[in-house]
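Amino Acid Chain and Its Fold in Token Form
===========================================
Structure side: the spatial fold of the chain, written down as a series of whole-number tokens.
Position: the record begins directly beneath this header, with no further notes in between.
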Amino acid sequence: MNRVQMTIIWSLSIVFFVSCESAGDKRLDFALEQAGKNRIELEKVLNYYQNDSLKLEAARFLIRNMPGHGGYEDDRLDSVKAVMKAAVKLNIGGYLPDSEWKRKWIGFNYRTLPKRPDIEYMSADYLIENIEQSFKVWEECPWAKNYSFDDFCEWVLPYRIGDEPLDNWRKMYYDRYKPLLDSLYTGNDMVEAVNVLARHFKRTNLFVLTTEYRMPHLGARFLSEYLVGTCREITDHAVYVFRALGFPINIDKYWYSPSNQHDHMWNVLKDSDGGFIPFWYMDSSDFVVKRGSTDGRKKGKVYRNTFEAHDSKTASLFGPFYQDVTAEYFGENEFKVKVDDNIEGNTILLGMFSPSGYVTVDAVPLRRGKARVNNIEPGVIFQPLTSENGTRSPAGYPFMVVDGNLRYFEPDMSKAVTAHIRRKYPLRQYLYGYMATMTGAEIEVSNDRYFRTSELLCCLTDTPRTNLNYYYPKISRPYRYVRFTPPPPAYPTADCRAEIAELAFFDSVDSEEHLPSKAIYGGGPVDENPAHDIDKACDDDWLTFYYSSGPQDSIVFDLQRARAIKKILFVPRNDDNFITPGNVYELFYQSGVKGWISLGVQTATTNELIYRNIPEGALLWLRNLTRGKEEQVFYVEDGEQKFVGYE
């Protein structure tokens, strides 16, 4: 798009700017007042562009939204970054070995540092360079015609993402990635151009995941050399790259998901048809950027990171630089949700369950005992909440949207149902896949450690349905060595590796004490990671596991002397959220403003718990009082557990 075309668009948009002039002028005046001694720098920018209407409005946009933006710059942050750099250089997944150096910074909280407000420190030179480079790519890129000047201001122009140190990043990223893009794609399709570049990053950028350090956004210059951090750093890197090349890119996030009990963020591209395409270039999909794609996670509420400040009901929760965009993902909806008659005030909060307490995801108006809830994802549980002195308390019964209608989880104390409970957390599909992979594995025995002669002890013919799986072989002859071999691949490209959390052997079907055994040889661990070495297959820890590097790598155990094996315990790779004999559990139901009410404590004797006193229609929560931390709410239907937030 050339300057003539942009000037035409500016002329067509003049009505909009005039209508907003009063509010815009007030915000600009406020920003200049907040600048104090730095006002002279900002006025230099405005004067510099007084004869260029488009760039002048771009400067005004940045300055009037500048209050509230700022970053952290401190030598102590550089020290933590040095630790993160070492994790990348050592290529050990971001988790450094324990050391005094690591311990010094592992608990460091950057929020104790002073934050530098942009409005007080922004230089005219920095802002002018940012504007000039932004317009340069907008003028030259073929996809500029796909978005308006307003989109340009919000999706391309901003000089920062969050609270990172300021870098002159635009030219640096442009010079590095423009030749790469030109070599990979020469067309005009904006979506395909982003997809091609994103797939390249997926193949070539060895991102190091680490969650050990509490840091502000790391900044463009650091990420250009060291791709380390969390999903935040992946999305930040994408923003720097794509905005430097003129693509309208932003970041969306949810604060909490019942699918993984974490927050998450991803990138979003504004499409030429006005729609939005979410993507995350570390996704496993071949098409990283694809219209109509989704990662499948439940999100509840989705918010977009913006440079422009928004005066909304959620500003007090998340700050003014987040915009509710849930409707873009799930469509618009509105419901009047009942709350307790004694709740006062004109606003309540919406929360989502977590084992450590409700996570607030929205604030909604309250009128005449009904909360007006807008734009929520169906199939996700929400809990009305009140807040007093920072404490969140239930304001009514939990609810979710099913087939366009509200379903309340209101316990009927006059009716009791019975449930056979087998898990405290849903069995996610990928975990079931780990377990199913071992179907068809063989266990052989021999008195020759090299198995030149052997006898089949048993074959795992059925997919494991739980973590504890017992097999009772018919062989009575004693043997010293046991070999586990994964099943052959179902098709030529299948990758069947050994994934064993525990393999134990007993000389009696009634024995609870397994025979002493030691893994003596087998295929090396995947990625040479010692956390998945062969000893993890017999260490009495069901969360650690042996994961072989090669397909059909066998593992051999030594029983020290020949033994007659009467019982085998096989624990596949799993999440340890099944009911475990010997562990102590407590079941709760949600009772509106009364909170969680206990239905009793049980010590498991088998791989299921039976509760016969569950109020019909109640939302339930099972806690393992012995160990573990993953827990999710569920309800009972036809005597079976139904977890919420999962397809």
Remarks:
- The longest strand covers residues 412-421.
- The chain has a mean pLDDT of 89.
- The first helix runs from residue 3 to 12.
- The chain has 17 helices and 33 strands.
